[in-house]
Amino acid sequence: MRKIKKAIIAAAGYGTRFLPATKNQPKEMLPIVDKPIIHHLVEEAVDSGIEDIIIVTRAGQMPMEDHFDSNYELENELKEAGKLKRLKKVEGIPEMANFAYVRQHKGYPYGNATPLLCAAPLIDDDEAFVYMFGDDLTLSKKPVTKQLIEVYEKEDTTAVLGVQEVPDEEVERYGTVKYKNEKKNFEIEAGYEKLPAEEAPSNMALFGRFVFSYDIIKQAKKTPTGKDGELWAMDIINNLAQKGKKVIAQPIEGEWHTTGDPLRYLKTSVEFALMREDIGPEFRKYLENRF
Fold it and tell me: How far is 286 from 206, CA to CA, in rounded Å?
């Protein structure tokens, strides 16, 4: 089996819930403390052994591409000012991985699986890859992406999906899965998009971490659009599961945090700030005294 070295990050949305902040910048560039959302995703991927990062973008997202490139003027200014610690923070960013950018154009249907079609030419037909949604972050001792890669390498499977249990009142916000035998290896029968809690097969919610074989891309090319006329990753996965392909929905060790709307973005920012050794203790004292 080839080592998994590539990750596709879906980052072509408009971030309309964050307007006007996202009028002229990608939502993925909003900061979580002092790093953009997408920077955290790239770090997780790199810490999991990923070397090639494919970011699927849209028009107007040059700030995201510029972030992972060198800024010689800034670096020179920091160097001349003797701000070497700050210089170190930025000069190594382009060396984190090999970056490639693919535009998501209007020739494809809208949907959370559309980036798979856009990035398909950059994936070999005999390799597996990581797929990440651009607005989901995680906190864990072992990177969540690495956890899923290890499951994929251990099991003879077509896909590994990261899942985490959510409260009943949150279930309808996410896709959920129905297990075949939860106690055995977390293989699923099917997944379902955004069902009410009383209809959902479980409280195990899908979030933006997957490891896919190339079978997913082949199936994506022939899967019709589904709910709301969109191309859903879950429809692709279900089609393969119905053909007897093995799909595992792996509960993660750690915490999943979404940045999909302002409230959850703020909660995620707080959680990440509290984890920081440099500012976490003082920030915690502030929150305790303030509230």
Answer: 34
255 three-state secondary structure:
strand
Average pLDDT over residues 82-91: 94
Q: Which of 53-62, 91-100, 208-217, 265-274 has the lowest mean pLDDT?
A: 53-62
DSSP string, 28-72: GGSEETTEEHHHHHHHHHHHTT--EEEEEE-TT-HHHHHHTS--H
How far apart, in whole angstroms, are the C-alpha atoms of residue 172 and residue 193? 8
Q: For residues 151 and 47, what is the distance between their CA atoms, to the nearest angstrom?
A: 16
- DSSP element (H, E) containing 110: none
d(CA 52, CA 128): 13
**Pick from 166, 188, 165: which is nearest to 178 by CA?**
188
Per-residue pLDDT band for 3 (boundaries 50, 70, 90) equals: very high
Of 116, 106, 110, 57, the C-alpha closest to 227 is 110
First to last CA, the chain: 53
CATH code 3.90.1150.10 for 6-290 = no
- What mean pLDDT, rounded, does the chain reach? 92
245 Cβ partners below 8 Å, 6+ apart?
158, 159, 215
Domain boundaries, the chain: 6-290
3-state SS, residue 130: strand
- Residue-wise pLDDT for 204-218, tens only, equals 898 889 999 999 999
Task: Note whether 159 and 58 are within 8 A (CB).
Answer: no
pTM above 0.90, yes or no: yes
